[in-house]
Each structure stands twice: as C-alpha cells, then as structure tokens.
Amino acid sequence: MPKLTASPPSIASRLIRALLGWALVWGLAVGLAVWLAASYEVDELLDEALRDSAELMTVLVAEALDVTDATSGIGAVPAKHFAWQLVAADGRVLRRSVRAPQAAWRTAPTAGFADVPGWRIYGQAAGRDGRFLYAAQTRAERAEARSEVALGAVLSALAVGLLGQLWLRARVRHELEPLQQLSQRLGQWRLDDGPPSVALGAPARQELAPVHEAIESLAVRLASRLAHEQAFSAHAAHALRTPLAGIDAQLAVAARSAPPELAERLVRVRGAAARLQHVVAALLGLFRSADGTASLQRGPVQLAALVARLPAFALEVQVQGTDSLDADADLLSAALLNLLDNAQRHGARHVSLSVTAAGHGLQMVDDGPGVSAARREQLAQALAEERYADTGGLGLMLADRVARAHGGRVTLPVVARGFAVVMDLGPPVAV
Fold it and tell me: Which partner from 79, 115, 278, 316 sits 20 to 30 angstroms from 402, CA to CA?
C-alpha cells in the first residue's frame, strides 16, 4: 500500500484555536486590569464606610454610655460588618463590640486610618476627656470583598471573550465557505467544459480574485498544451497508420505469390501487423483523450488466448486458470507487452499471469531480482500520485494509465521473490 501522507493543517481550525487562545488571554488580562482598579476602589469604599461607621458609632456610643462608669464591658450597640472599641485616654477599653478584641488596638490616642495586625482601623475622638472610638474591619473580610469583585470581573471578561470566540468561529467558517465551494467546482470542472470563468463563476470574495485569475491562466496554458498534444497525436497516428497499412498490403501481395510453406508464415506476420495497428490505435486514443481515459471497447478477454497472440519473449509465460477479464483487449495487450518487456530486461526468466480473486484484475509475478522494499514503496507512491516520471520507465506508467482508463489502478504487492504487479481494471460494466 502507498504511504499515507499527513493531511495539512486546517485554516479554520488554526484560526479557531488562535481565537480561543486570544479570548482566554484577553479575558485574563482584562480581569487582572479590572481587579487592580477594583481593588483600589474597593479599599477606598471600605475606608469610607469605615469612617462613616466610626462617626455613627461615636454618636450612638456616647448616648448609650454612662461616662462616669469606668467598667469595661461588651457594648450594647450592635455592629454586623465591622468591630469597634471605645478606649479611654489611659488605654483602657471602656466598651467594645462582640467581635473586637479585649486589648485596645491603640494604647495611645491615634486619629485617622491605621493598620494593625489582622485589622484595618479608623479612630476619632469621642469626647473631651480623651476617649477615642475605633472602628475596624478584618483584613480577611476586605480580601474577601476584593476577591469577589476580581472573580466577578474575570468571569465576566472570560464570558465575553468566549462568546466573542464563538461568534468569530461561526464567522470564520462562513467566510471560508467560498473556498470550499471553489474547491468543489474545481473538482467537477473539466477542460472541455468551457473557460474557467464560466465553470467557476465570479469570485465570491475580493481575496479570491487572484486565485481565479491564476486558475484561468493555468487553464489557458493547459488547454493550449493539450491542443498541441492532441494535434501531435493526430499526426503521429497518421504517420504510424500509413506505413502499417503499407506493410499489410505488401504482406498480402507477398502471401498470394509465395510458396505455401512461406505463405503461412506471411499470413501470421500479417495478423501480427493487424494486431499492432489495433494496439497503436488504442494507445493513441488513450493519450489523445482530454482526461487520460479512452473510449473503451470492453468485452470478455481470455488471458491465455491474449498471451498467445503476443510476440514471443525470451520468457516462460505461464497463465494460471481459465478465468476471463472484462477489458479492452487492445489496451490490455499494450500494457502486458510493456510489463513483459520490463520483466525480461530486469533479468526475469519466468512470469506467472493470473486473474485476481476479485475477478476484475490481472496479476503478474516474475522470478527476477525484484527491488528493495524502499524502492517498491517509492514506486507505489509515485503510481498512487500519478508521478510517472519517478516510475523509471514506460511499463508501469502505461499499465497504470490503462488500468485507470478501466476505472482501476496499478498496485505493487509484496512477494517473497521477484516483482509483482496487479492491474485492477475496475468492476465489469453492466450492459
């Protein structure tokens, strides 16, 4: 089997992966930027709330506290989102909330914001006797608030990025549809269908206009080359048929006037010349066709009878079985002639021919030296890709062209000794 080549990367998949990566990077970058900005804003808002809470608590505590009472205790004024302490001028805690520690946050009166281990506090005077009220929030609560804001920002940015990626993915697929349509039209277009501007239609996108122009230019060059090749084939056909017809006429005249023992040989030579005319006509028809196929004259072909009509080779040709093939006898003869010539030139002495198990192919195995496994793989790959310049001669190329004209192809199976060729001629054509 020919080596399978890796398929090239897809433009759509590469663009989609790139868009997904950029969506993730964009979401994280935006989330980080929002987190940095939000952290500063959240700190400002929490500090402002802390200051407002301290001012409010100063009024409430002052009303609830008997200033002559020097006994420390839990304050009756509740505080859900922060803690507070009322501290005397000498550093004693007069009142505190449930969440506040028993020890004073500040032993010396300190106004304004300050950071102490585990807390962010704000202090302000709560009377003329040196008392200070401190309102505070734990650093864990502030970090939690910042985290919630940052998480919300990151998730929102990622959601927007992923939604944008999905939209761009659909958009990319839509924009690449003209390329798929162009490839489908190219796959169905034949040189004899008319100019490519008609077969391919107008470019669906501005970027495809140079592609259409390149295809049109290539089609013009191919059509010109094909016309020259067909003209050459026509001249070659005339140049070959004329001498062959002359040979046939001369052989006919010679056979009538020759002695009986010589006349019989001349009749056989004339029959070989007639078969040569049919083979030449079939080959010219094969190579003159626009798409590499010919108008086949398929029919039952007995392999043993076909081999018997071929010119003699310095080979022992053995036909296995009596099965017949549905094929064009002239084209099959031309291919078999070249394959047998190849086998003889490469040192084979014995060739075995048989119909394949599927019933629509010809297998030839010789006893020559064969080729290395690497060379066999190269030849198989060249035949699969129709790179006939790499097959090293006319034999395999002509056999593959004939097989493809029948709807099949040539393969090179592995054998223990020698060299093997299988011509798949495609399924028989129903009549």
Answer: 316
